[in-house]
Write a structure and sequence with these properties.
Layout (H helix, E strand, L loop, with lengths): L33 H15 L6 H8 L3 H8 L2 H25 L4 H17 L8 H9 L4 H27 L9 H20 L4 H18 L1
């Protein structure tokens, strides 16, 4: 018996090639710049203080919702502390070379106070100094902020003391001049013009206060 051969069927279609699919990224890409957002928060805290600044205010100023704010900076207190540190870092950057300039003490003091007034009077309205106008109030209740405020005061005193010590070494000040006492007077003048600037005292009046303070400090020395 002759076995009939089977008819060949149509060739099997090749299995489709499956391209690997890139895994989807979780979450939405960050739609804000942390440095910009922190700067906005700093401006708000500096203007209104800690207690008067709400999370809704911060959200509106930074363009970030509450969960995003918390994820980026922590709670309101942590954001305040980060803002204060940013203020100190920025002020230090602007002022440090003025303290180090090898120029006569009177000219150096004039430049330091002029730069301070630029900081206190900058912006749409006078804002004064973050340390004096808001952080000092929070320092009463918050040990971490208190430590930052005291560190800032000490840093300023040391910077001024270095200026007066150098002036004494070069003969601009008498040997009996006390750099520590003079530095405290110089820092007190900084605090005074910061408060008055926030209160809206015109710059020319603040400059007159500065001139008188410098005269007293150098005459006393």
């Amino acid at each position: 018996m002759v076995q009939k051969s089977k008819r060949a069927g149509p060739p099997e279609a090749a299995a489709p090639k499956i391209e690997p699919v890139a895994p989807k990224r979780r979450g939405r890409p960050r739609a804000y710049q942390p440095d910009v957002a922190l700067g906005k928060a700093l401006d708000l805290f500096r203007k209104d203080g800690f207690a008067a600044t709400s999370l809704d205010d911060l959200s509106a100023a930074t363009g970030m919702n509450r969960p995003s704010l918390y994820g980026a900076f922590g709670d309101k207190r942590e954001l305040y502390i980060k803002s204060y540190q940013r203020y100190r870092d920025d002020a230090r950057t602007r002022m440090i070379n003025l303290f180090r300039d090898e120029i006569p003490i009177r000219k150096r003091l004039e430049r330091i106070y002029a730069a301070a007034l630029d900081i206190y009077l900058g912006g749409e309205s006078p804002r004064g100094c973050f340390t004096v106008m808001t952080a000092a109030s929070e320092a009463v209740f918050d040990p971490e902020i208190r430590a930052m405020v005291l560190d800032g005061f000490g840093e300023l005193d040391k910077a001024f003391a270095s200026c007066f010590r150098k002036a004494r070494e070069t003969g601009e000040l008498a040997e009996s001049a006390d750099p520590i006492v003079l530095s405290q007077l110089a820092s007190a003048t900084i605090h005074t013009i910061a408060i008055r600037a926030r209160a809206g005292v015109p710059r020319r009046e603040l400059e007159a206060i500065v001139k008188g303070a410098i005269d007293v400090m150098l005459r006393a020395a």
